[in-house]
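so my prof wants the structure for this chain in the tokens format not the other one, which i didnt know existed until like an hour ago. anyway here's the sequence
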Amino acid sequence: MKDKTLQVLVVDDDFRVAGIHASIVDQAPGFSVLATARTVAEATLHIATSQPDLLLVDVYLPDGDGIDLVRTHAIDAFVLSAADDAPTVRRAFQAGALGYLLKPFPQKQLVDRLDSYARFQHVLSGSAGLSQEKIDQGLAILHGSTTPVNSRSATEQLLLDALQGQEISAAEAAEIAGVSRATAQRRLASMASQGVVEVRLKYGQSGRPEHLYSRPQL
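here's what i got, hopefully its the right format
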């Protein structure tokens, strides 16, 4: 089943800034801009009628406070603001914000956060009970996508964690790590060429052999 497109509401009183953020969202795979809003009132109306998946919210709005908007609605949100004082940042997280980006920021920083959020959504999707491992994995994805782990990208580390103690296919590793199959295949093949992971061909009754990946035995 194809993952749904995540609908984003951009809330910023500066229409030029809102347009820049909206353009970044629209270019991000798996995301679409639902609307832009310049006030709390406009944002509240869009939330009531369209139910966005994610909010990108400025703090200071003409008719209210963006953090209060996040607190009021049970919707995932990132706060995007020039406010760099610790009380405001803490207040945003206390209100339930998943992240805080200081404006101005490079486009790649928001792209990375959106990519992490999409994978976070994938890992924590569905109505079945979640294991502690899945919860920890989701949080690691959300907060670790731009920070190398043991000199490796967060994606590679997630795939290595998925291989811990087992031999599995790229598709299985992708499901556990919460990344696309193509990404898993590309990263695993790269790590195999470096000797970081081992690969074995499994031949079936017909068709192409399956690549199985594992971590080297120490």
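also thought this was worth mentioning. Residues 152 and 158 are 10 Å apart (CA to CA).
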